[in-house]
UniProtKB/TrEMBL annotation:
GO terms for biological process: galactose metabolic process. This is Galactokinase. It is an enzyme of class 2 (transferase). The keyword Cytoplasm applies. Residues 6-54 form the Galactokinase N-terminal domain. The lineage of its organism: Bacteria, Bacillati, Actinomycetota, Actinomycetes, Candidatus Nanopelagicales.
Length: 378
């Protein structure tokens, strides 16, 4: 753990009562279907965000971050309500609001999840704060409760219309497994995900093209799905089959038809991915990743030139499969590759980016890691 303890004492004059950590995520497959009641299959990455917290005996909330030169932002607890302007501190404030905290606190954040890379640094931030507060004040929220409360913080306090996948995996993931999450009731199954024993590696390519879920593209996709559900009179896209969709085509706009086709086919691909993972059939997993990317690019329209370039260059360099991950419009792609081809795949993607004059990409690898946990109690 970094020296958050020492820095906390420097900023606030006393030791923290608790420190918790929560990871970012990569979604293996199941994109843009969490808000349509689908199943998704993400895993937690090793990079985590830490929150150190101490209870105060007044109603002040003071918050600082080791990534923001320890500048302290201060608010009265009673002022922490949706609509309050701010920057990154809106995420922890949103969690304080949604968990109904009634005591003043000091918080220090140390974030190690790459920002703006589509690896859910915001969910990591929300979930480490929520985990620390839940234990510190013995609130008794289950992991499912915490997932819903942190999503509520992001939806209603920060104003980002995200689904529930990122918070759930940051809270519930197990090391060595991908998390099969039913986004309707938040039930889970941990699916062993060990590419290394088959000589493979999952390369994460941060395109450095920046995405923002507040730009409207994400909300527009959600609205299309909701419109299809309303027009067809079904509870969610999970209830829709490809045959039904084909026979209802006349009731939908062409865009709605394409969005729904992505959702229906992606839901099936998640189940197929579980089946092939259980057989360690990584060649078939690769094909599913490719199909997912094509569907996100062509039917859902959330890819971008940098993501397509990362995927195409990885495949040309011999990857078993590749796709964009997360909300899209930038952020990261993943490529399932032979571990012995890592250097040449990186070189091929770097060259493809340079040829197109894109900003140089960044590369990460990560084994599936543990979800949020308390790592120190004062
Ligand atoms: C973002 C959202 C998630 C999910 C993905 C797309 O990461 O926060 O809820 O919708 O996009 O799968």
């Amino acid at each position: 753990m970094p020296d958050i303890d020492k820095r906390f004492v420097q900023a606030f004059g006393a030791a923290p009562d608790i420190i918790a950590a929560a990871p970012g995520r990569v979604n293996l497959i199941g994109e843009h279907i969490d808000y349509s009641d689908g199943f998704v299959l993400p895993f937690a990455i090793k990079d985590r965000t830490f929150a150190a917290i101490r209870v105060r005996n007044d109603r002040k909330v003071r918050i600082t971050s080791m990534q923001r030169r320890n500048k302290v932002v201060e608010q009265n607890l009673d002022a922490i309500k949706p609509g309050l302007k701010g920057e990154w501190e809106r995420y922890p404030f949103g969690v304080i609001w949604s968990l109904g905290i009634t005591s003043g606190i000091d918080i220090m954040i140390d974030g190690h999840v790459p920002l703006g890379a589509g690896l859910s640094s915001s969910a990591a931030l929300e979930c480490c704060v929520a985990t620390a507060l839940n234990h510190l004040f013995s609130l008794g929220n289950s992991l499912e409760d915490l997932a819903r409360l942190t999503q509520r913080a992001e939806n209603e306090y920060v104003g980002v219309p995200c689904g529930i996948m990122d918070q759930s995996v940051s809270l519930m993931a197990h090391s060595g497994s991908a998390l099969l999450l039913d986004c309707r009731d938040l039930s889970t199954r941990h699916i062993a995900f060990d590419v290394a024993s088959s000589g493979l590696e999952l390369l994460i390519i941060d395109t450095q093209a920046h995405h923002s879920l507040t730009d409207g593209g994400y909300a527009e996709r959600r609205a299309s799905c909701e419109s299809v559900v309303a027009k067809l009179g079904i509870p969610s896209l999970r209830e829709l089959s490809l045959n039904q969709l084909a026979s209802s085509r006349g009731m939908l706009t062409e865009t709605e038809f394409m969005r729904a086709r992505h959702a229906v086919t992606e839901m099936k691909r998640v189940m197929d991915a579980v089946e092939v993972l259980e057989k360690k059939d990584f060649a078939s997993l690769g094909l599913l990743l490719n199909q997912s990317h094509a569907s996100l690019r062509d039917d859902y329209n959330v890819s971008c030139p940098e993501l397509n370039c990362a995927v195409d260059a990885s495949l040309a360099a011999g990857a078993l499969g590749a796709r964009m991950v997360g909300g899209g419009f930038g952020g990261s792609a993943i490529a399932l590759i032979n571990a012995s081809h890592t250097t040449q795949t990186i070189a091929a993607v770097e060259k493809a980016f340079a040829d197109k004059r894109f900003k140089a990409p960044r590369f990460f690898t990560s084994l599936p890691s543990q979800g949020a946990e308390v790592i120190q109690r004062g």
